[in-house]
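Reagents: none. Just compute today. FBA_2 domain-containing protein.
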Amino acid sequence: MNNPYFPLHSLPENEILHVLRNMEIYDQIAYSICSAKSGEKVRSLKLKVDLISLIVLFDIRIEVRLFDNTSLLFSFPKLNVDSHSNIHLERYEGEDLERRKLEDLWNTEAIDKNKLISHLCKVLNRPCADKIYYCDPTIPPKSISTLVQGQEVKILSIMPVRPQHRIRATLKTLRYSSVLRIFSVPFEKNEYTKWMSILMQNLDIFSFLSDDPTPIDDVLISNSQEFTTRCLFTSKQLNRFLKLWMVGSNRRFEYFSCKITGDSDGLLKGIEFERVPMDSTKVYKSKLVDLPIQEIPIKGGFQITRNDGTKAVVSIRTGKFDFVLF
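Predicted 3D structure written out:
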């Protein structure tokens, strides 16, 4: 893989393209790393992939997810994140914990690891990587930023890491545009304005995956289109949210999901609503782009109306509260 005079390059131009078009897509992507020429040839094929992700876990992985439920995984030890090392390439089937190795492809030093993501984005005609999955506080956020060439990604998922200052540094260093998933509030009480600035971003999805008590004000100042959380809220708190939404708060909200605790009888107190029959099912299509479940069925519920005529359905099922615009 280090030889710039790869045998395929000795063929006439049209024959090179003919051979490339008859390769499997994972072989085409792997071949693109051989040289600048091979990269340009593969780029001309205008290949389509589902997702490009940087996964920081037990090692550093760069995943190219294909549409046939298989992935190419480029990996190298996390201890070598700032130094030169071999990059190992494997092909997998499935996702996450259910991922199954199909084959080892090769090891290569043909490309600098800090240029690999930008190379893949260029070859696959994508503006940037789609996702960073950060779950190892021993890797400095600046090193992660270097791997994506300082570019903005669509999705930033920060798993539970300690110490908290590492999460703060990650939020400050890594740039994201559409989705933030986070498991805890990384700021002290006297730094609440910093947390507010995150909640007020114009995101597609904000997922707060903590069970810790959270004030309803954190929801009320959110400017995301989807807000999902594991937090528990009372009927009184959610009643306040609904009443404020009806007069104009959370205007970008399309979907809000949380847990509801205690008696739900007071949820719609003082609110005009229409009951939706239980045999009526509406489906909300989430803006998720990296997870398989993208359609959320809502059965029955109560329809309420905002002062501008916008309608939403409120549903309560087994301790779960859903608020959806249709």
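The mean pLDDT is 89.
Action item: order primers for follow-up constructs.
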